[in-house]
Amino acid sequence: MEIDNPWFVMELSQTDLRKELSENTLDINKKMEITKMILNGVSYVHQKEYLHRDLKPANILKFNNDVYKISDFGLIKNSNNESESEVLTKIQVALGTVDYMSPEAKRGEYSIQSDIYALGVIMDEIGIAEIDGIDEIIRKSTHLRPKDRYGSVSEMLVAFNKVIERREQ
Fold first, then answer.
1. How far is residue 145's CA from residue 134's CA, in Å, rounded to a whole number?
2. What is the DSSP letter of 100?
3. Which SMART domains does this UniProt record tie to the protein (predicted)?
4. 27 in catalytic set
5. Would 114 be classed as within a structural domain?
6. Domain extent at residue 133
7. Which of 28, 40, 150, 162 is the most buried (most CB within 10 A)?
């Protein structure tokens, strides 16, 4: 079998997070569970030294087993290899969905902090900001200056898990 272009096959999803949020059927505990899955998924992508560059609820798919997975890796970039996607970045200047893009991503500058910014916007959209401590995570992850955001999604996860622990006490 000869293939000119790579392709990817995955299981069929039930829906995406954007649709679920618009239906307003998720309770706060489910929203927290989904958020943790998203943070774990992006943390894994970053540990493999990739940037997603288009994180948004429509790219978070729900599967039959109630597991949410990140999808649409069409704009993914190796964070350690500038030349790998340099041409694409220069042609379009800014890649991704504007509502979830950090200020620097809108200028065509991408880093881990750009994905962290998108995660903060997603967390706010999920509707968990009223939980004590989550508002601070959102505020820090969406700071205008990248250096004032979390250093990694793993660091965000630590803060998120502390909020969960406080809620369970």
1. 19
2. G
3. S_TKc
4. no
5. yes
6. 15-161
7. 150
